[in-house]
Design brief:
Elements: E1 3-4, H1 7-27, E2 33-38, H2 43-59, E3 62-67, H3 74-86, E4 92-95, H4 105-111, H5 123-130, H6 139-150, E5 159-163, H7 170-178, E6 187-191, H8 198-202, E7 207-210, E8 228-231, E9 235-238, E10 245-248, H9 253-257, E11 262-263, H10 270-290
Helix pairs in contact: 1-10, 2-10, 6-7, 6-10
The structure holds nicotinamide-adenine-dinucleotide.
Length: 299
């Protein structure tokens, strides 16, 4: 049976260490501030934002939350971002994605001051990551990297297959893992919807990261005994309960657990790490903007 990697436990440990970093900032008169902006009435987005705000509160980050109706003009959002860029008490700005169709997502990402871009999606921060000099590592890929470290699955010299090539998970994760840096040095293959034979790739892998948004895409037939499997997927699948759905990852957990070396559950794997790394970036943002050097939790 696989070792189950507990993302809640690792996330709480990092949050506790971040509390100490926040205290050191506070000794210098600095309170880190994170502004979240929601332009959607989607229930899942509302839940994600409130979880992020709650986590801020727990470690002493000041949370500011703004909501804009999904039918409002795009300029409402751009003007709000402009104000937050100028607000010295706000060190991090997070616009919860997706934004409505009439709002140009790329323009939103470019509008955020790169120093306050705690999601790490501004082209300047994407470029820095690719160039091997990351300022803010995107939260979910960074969380995956931390989980691998916590599970003693150093990717250095290993064959890693990332399934998914989105700008928020697959591509930045591949970039992180291939870097000549701690937590990197892997040989990375990126699979996606046009990959011919995904199983042929995953069967050769030491580490498989599933980030496709397809329930049960990865089963035991697609991995070997020694594989570490990280499941990023969060999918709503029909269920016979009050809500009418339950959350499932991209990995058939029960099947793969029998065979893999280690595996993350959904929920309780990558999800809590995404939030912990958002807090990490916000504390780092405050330190950079206020010129107060502090130690941040290491790998
Ligand atoms: P996305 O839809 O933007 O990208 C999915 C990627 O998977 C695409 O690049 C596509 O080419 C690939 N893909 C789709 N179907 C495939 C298939 N059948 N075989 C191989 N590749 C396929 O999604 P995303 O935003 O990257 O998110 C991926 C999953 O991760 C979703 O389930 C999402 O909810 C979840 N997610 C979780 C967290 C977290 O914190 N746990 C954070 C972000 C995303």
């Amino acid at each position: 049976m696989a070792h189950v990697i507990d993302g809640n436990e690792v996330g709480v440990r990092i949050q506790n260490e971040l509390s100490a970093s926040v205290e050191r900032l506070s000794d210098s008169g600095v309170t880190p501030g994170l502004a979240t902006v929601l332009m959607s009435d989607d229930g899942a987005s509302e839940t994600y934002v409130s979880m992020k705000q709650r986590a801020c509160e727990q470690i002493g980050i000041e949370g500011y939350h703004y909501e804009i109706g999904p039918d409002e003009p795009a300029d409402e959002l751009f003007d709000r971002i402009g104000e937050l860029n100028e607000d010295p008490s706000v060190h991090g700005i997070l616009v919860q994605m997706p934004v409505p169709d009439h709002v140009d997502e790329q323009r939103v990402l470019r509008r955020i001051d790169p120093l306050k871009d705690v999601d790490g999606f501004h082209p300047e921060n994407v470029g820095r990551l690719v160039a091997g000099d990351p300022r803010y590592k995107p939260c979910t890929p960074h969380g995956v990297q931390r989980l691998l470290a916590a599970a003693d699955a150093d990717p250095a010299g290993k064959d890693v297959v990332v399934v998914g090539r989105s700008n928020i998970v697959g591509k930045p994760l591949a970039n992180l893992l291939v870097q000549k840096a701690d937590g990197g040095n892997a040989t990375v293959t990126v699979c996606h919807s046009r990959t011919d034979d995904i199983a042929a790739k995953t069967l050769e892998a030491d580490i498989v990261v599933a980030a496709a948004g397809v329930p049960e895409l990865i089963d035991a037939e697609m991995i070997t005994d020694g594989t570490t499997v990280i499941d990023v997927g969060v999918n709503r699948v029909d269920a016979d309960n009050e809500k009418g759905y339950e959350l499932a990852g991209d990995v058939d957990f029960e099947d793969v657990e029998e065979k893999a070396e280690a595996i993350t559950p959904v929920p309780g794997g990558v999800g809590p790490m995404t939030i912990a790394m958002l807090l990490y970036n916000t504390v780092k943002a405050a330190s950079l903007q206020e010129g107060v050097a502090i130690e941040l939790p290491g790998q």
